[in-house]
Amino acid sequence: MYRCLVPFVATPESVARYMLKLAEVKPGEIVYDLGSGDGRILIIAALEFGAKAVGIEIRKDLVEKSRRKVKELGLENRVKIIHGDFFEVDISEADVVTLYLLTSVNEKLRPKLEKELKPGARVVSHDFEIPGWKPIKVVEINEDWRSHRILLYKV
Fold first, then answer.
1. Helices (H) and strands (E) in the chain, counts
2. What CATH class is the domain 13-154?
3. How far apart are the C-alpha atoms of 72 and 131, rounded to whole Å?
4. Secondary structure of 84-125 in HEC code, one letter for each residue
5. What is the domain partition of the chain in residue ranges?
6. What are the pLDDT digits (tens) for 123-155?
7. What is the DSSP pairing of strand 122-126 with strand 52-57?
8. Whole-structure pTM over 0.85, yes or no?
9. Exposure of 60 by Cβ count < 10 A (0-12 exposed, 13-18 middle, 19+ buried)?
């Protein structure tokens, strides 16, 4: 439908960890990463937070790279990578959704989040806001030579 390609820029692991901490991910919860790239957020969610994690990534090379890493770590029963367009994948089982997308993409994604996510689901975005939503928390952290903004929303 939209097929929004966003350049792949990896979220530093320490920022990914902070995003999951800010969202208060609990063991057994389901984390979706839209545009999951190399899978680092999913892997941290599974290994360090005890979550189940689902990544949706449109780039085949990144899907293959993240699937290899998941297999190496023996996380196939906790982490699933879907090769596809996140606008076309049902995300209704998510307790937490992580994003590192442009504001323009977040704006197009907002109706899907509002329609599919259950009440109480948390959405945590790295750097870019979701226009029309008011974050419940905004945190600035300095990492990897620059400042990162993390925005937490609750449905």
1. 4, 7
2. alpha beta
3. 38
4. CCHHHCCCCCCCEEEECCCHHHHHHHHHHHHHHCCCCCEEEE
5. 13-154
6. 999 999 999 999 999 999 987 678 999 999 999
7. unpaired
8. yes
9. exposed
